[in-house]
Design brief:
This protein has 509 residues and is α/β, with parallel strands linked by helices. The chain has two domains: 2-343, no CATH class; 353-507, Rossmann fold (3-Layer(aba) Sandwich), CATH 3.40.50. It has helices at 69-79, 105-114, 133-142, 145-148, 202-207, 213-220, 234-251, 290-303, 309-317, 322-329, 364-375, 401-407, 441-449, 471-478, 497-507, and strands spanning 2-5, 60-64, 88-91, 118-121, 151-153, 159-163, 172-176, 184-190, 192-194, 198-200, 255-261, 283-287, 338-343, 353-357, 378-381, 427-433, 456-463, 484-492.
Length: 509
Amino acid sequence: MTETTLGSHMTRRTFVSVGALVSGSVVFAGLAGCGTADAENSEEPSQSKTVENTPEKVPTVYFVHAVDSEALQAIYKAIAKHLTGKDIAVKLSTGEPGGHYFLNPRLIAPLVQAVNGVIVECNTAYGGRRSSTESHYQVATEHGFTEIAPFQILDEESFISLPVENGFHLNEDLVGAHFFDYDGYLVLSHFKGHTMAGFGGALKNISIGLASREGKYLIHSAGATSQSWRSAATRDFLESMADACKAVTTACSNMIYINIMNNLSVDCNCDSHPAEPKMADIGILASTDPVALDQACVDLIYASDDNNADLIERMESRDGMHVLEAAEELGVGSRTYELVEITTEETPAQSNKAVVFFSATGHTEPIAGFVSQAVGADLLRIEAQKPYSEEDLNYHDRSTRATSEQDAVDVRPAIAGELPNISGYDVIYLGHPIWWGKVPRILLTFAESVSLAGKTVTTFCTSGSSDIGSSADELAAVSDPSATWVHGKRFAIGTDYDVVAQWARELGL
Ligand SMILES: Cc1cc2nc3c(=O)[nH]c(=O)nc-3n(C[C@H](O)[C@H](O)[C@H](O)COP(=O)(O)O)c2cc1C
């Protein structure tokens, strides 16, 4: 991963030069818990403190031109060390049914899984299927989010009040009651226009997006009521959004922000019929400062020479930039920032370690995520070309698929799609369930098909009770003899992060 400091066309902002990239791998520094400042690690100003606009203190906004999963993971790694803890919430918008510009689950899946995140959302305040918990869960499933990660509606039962100090209009922000269930938040926002706020990015995601229905009423009415929909004057509404941002970032400083600038419609994902985008995708941006991040996105819209007139008109006609002014005034963050470009072309692997795993019923998957987090490894999944059905896995009947595969010596079930590309990694952690005391045959397909030459490989598994046994020996027997195999470990189903992380770190690979 390489980086360049930009600044040529953006004369309104302050840019300073930087040294080497802060981090090339995922680092989870410990269990800080939501609301515990990560001051030791923080290079950028905390979003909950007033930011002085001096060159030394300006926050960094990282930018990558591409919009794909690899770029998303690369940019995440630039700020990953600022997100600590094991229970990570990924806040995004599930998108109003009918619309189709919400974040694509396939795009974000590798990142969400790498942080072992739970996708979180809150119910909407207007009508529609996302306004009630039950149908909102259905929408999340229909839109593909529940397939890639656990999902929770933070205000599914109720809301809690967060205080707003010295706010413009609000003295409290009402957020989903599960807000504090998480150690930290990865705020993943689709940047686009918005019919009321002018644009939607990180600030909108943590204000309106984290507010319960009552909280949304409160923000929209600029503090007048939490019981029904009432619209305040535009500037008052935007200032109330800033108030809510202040409440959230004060309550939880363990938050990092990524904005994806694709499908740049003038309309939001809360619109069931958003206007077609006229601009091409711009890229992905990330920061620990949500004000700097949204400001950088706005600046990139202005700097674009690609049909940006409609989106600029949408932002300006709604006085959209006022939320940035208000949030900066409250000390949520800084409108002055340093933009650092990250390029990924020459870096097929960001880490020299990869966790490659197969999980038929979902027990090995979280363990794989824990290993990935603990050692900063990329997470690669093996899936069967023909997925294993419940009946296939029924081990009470020896004639069913998984069991008969285990009984046969030479069966090699096909892997779906392309084989995981492990060429850039030196260390491989192979994760799998135990089937009839052995490694599932599909892991042998993998070990035979890729080159493990010169790599260090260890294994881990989950099982009902059996130990890891000779799984590694079986794998070693069919793979390149120059690989070094390190004895692996069996974990009980549901083993905690700390236990897995301790094993992975103590291996010292
Ligand atoms: C076909 C089959 C055979 C299994 N054989 C064993 C076994 O021999 N010993 C054991 O402890 N658990 C056994 N299990 C249980 C799995 O190892 C356990 O549920 C594991 O955590 C599944 O991981 P996964 O959810 O990631 O697929 C078996 C499960 C299946 C489906």
